[in-house]
Amino acid sequence: MSFDARAVLDARARTSPPEDPEVAAERRQAASGWFRELRDRLCAAFEAIEDDYAGPMNPDLAPGRFERTAWERPGGGGGEMSVMRGRVFEKVGVNISVVHGGFSPEFAKQIPGADRDPAPGGADGAGAQFWAAGVSLVAHMWSPHVPAAHMNTRHIRTTLGWFGGGGDLTPITPHAPDTARFHGAFKAACDAHDADYYPRFKAWCDDYFFLPHRGETRGVGGIFYDYLDSGDWARDFAFTRDVGLAFLDAYPAIIRAHMNRSWTEAERDYQLIRRGRYAEFNLLYDRGTQFGLKTGGNTEAILMSMPPHAKWP
Amino acid sequence: MSFDARAVLDARARTSPPEDPEVAAERRQAASGWFRELRDRLCAAFEAIEDDYAGPMNPDLAPGRFERTAWERPGGGGGEMSVMRGRVFEKVGVNISVVHGGFSPEFAKQIPGADRDPAPGGADGAGAQFWAAGVSLVAHMWSPHVPAAHMNTRHIRTTLGWFGGGGDLTPITPHAPDTARFHGAFKAACDAHDADYYPRFKAWCDDYFFLPHRGETRGVGGIFYDYLDSGDWARDFAFTRDVGLAFLDAYPAIIRAHMNRSWTEAERDYQLIRRGRYAEFNLLYDRGTQFGLKTGGNTEAILMSMPPHAKWP
């Protein structure tokens, strides 16, 4: 699945004309502006959940609020982490970043379009071999009845430009109506753009979030896509916005459906064991985590995805 | 450091005559017998600690006892896990294994002597490309004042045969007398065999147990060695036995020095955060873990090393 998309993009590297610099600058601006707006809307939705919580657990905790920390990338650009530790969200991170810079010649060979002139520079990344912006979210919840979730969308530009992202849901014990709601939102977003997207991107997600050593998937899936360049930038950007909005529609509703239920110590304990699997996936298999940590990325921002508390009893 | 030892072993592959089959069988027997004996002595020492504990914490827990589980390797051989969850040891695993089988041709190229005839077979591994036996131990303690520890020794045979292993100490807060005792025991074991061993194997350990993304070592080190074949099998086996005995001498004494002290919730919390680093090392960098999980090893036995409880707050 992933190979097809990558092959299409590689083929484009040989045929597509260089982008007009003004158009390129507008696109960078539009994409990074959207990721920031989506971040703000997600944080607002999650803070409203903290306010509206009316369950019996965590009686001593106040409604959570996000704390923001900006960071700079030594090679160019930077980002902003937003982290909340509340009474519904045990730990949730919503990170945005806009980075640019160079690859080593060897690494550039692995990145579509990165070994071809001209560079995608401009005022915010002049002469850079790549420019990348995105929003990334991981939520770990206090309640074993509320699924954990992950969402990420990104736009990457070398001499080519493409979108990627997706979202997946990790319930402690799968609950069919939640799974249906989550997949339904992504299916609707996909179908509005291309009838092939949902089946392809759902299968890609199932394939990606799999732990071979456990013989299990990380959760109940969602969608995953990468190297998306249909040839129509505006269309791909609109799809990527819709993926973010689908998540914003589905996940807060799933949280609200369960957040006021109490839980037992045994249910919580089982949640912590399942979170061990989540940690295993992130450290053993997740490409973003491995790539980020091994290329000098911001360790705190990358490991924001780790569960606040996990067990391997 | 590791490259030197590997190069010596690779050179030997071109010059050493085939081993007499009776001698080979005796050596397999002697090595696997020793690993089993060391396992029994370590388990007895740890159970005695559980009996002798007289501290104020964990008042409701009974002295722990090891539980044994045998497993078979589909490709040949198997092992025995011994796990104890007690009142001093939160989780300790002592695993032994004796396995044999074949490598894929591609993988065999990475293993000294594995792509050369004849195979190291015999009654317990006829026609196999490799035979390997070892003992492996990881201890995670309830008390933040008692260091975690890891020890492993192994003997691997292809058309060549070599020893490897080591031990390292991971205190939550380093304590100089413990560090001195642990390193002192290994230094004495090393110095009795070769004056070069301790400085080489200590440096190799520091190099191996390092987390680049954190810029920190996993703990206060110890020794690490691999591909050890001096040309005198009996000498290398005696050294490997002494490494095990040094650990058996030092680690229980370090536990006993601190086990009866109480601790605060803040100290325990910090311990759980440090254990997150331990989990990061094992899943991101440990060669044995990565190799085992990605080649269909016994997941439960491999992940016995994971901390029972960890935090990424």
Automatic annotation (TrEMBL), chains A, B:
Belongs to the aerobic coproporphyrinogen-III oxidase family. InterPro entries: Coprogen_oxidase_aer, Coprogen_oxidase_aer_sf, Coprogen_oxidase_CS. The keyword Oxidoreductase applies. Residues 1-25 are annotated as: Disordered. Signal peptide: none annotated. Its EC number is 1.3.3.3. Pathway: Porphyrin-containing compound metabolism; protoporphyrin-IX biosynthesis; protoporphyrinogen-IX from coproporphyrinogen-III (O2 route): step 1/1. Gene3D superfamilies: Coproporphyrinogen III oxidase, aerobic (3.40.1500.10). SUPFAM superfamilies: Coproporphyrinogen III oxidase (SSF102886). GO terms for molecular function: coproporphyrinogen oxidase activity. One of its GO terms (cellular component) is cytoplasm. The keyword Membrane does not apply. It holds the Pfam family Coprogen_oxidas. This is coproporphyrinogen oxidase. Keywords: Heme biosynthesis, Oxidoreductase, Porphyrin biosynthesis. Homodimer.
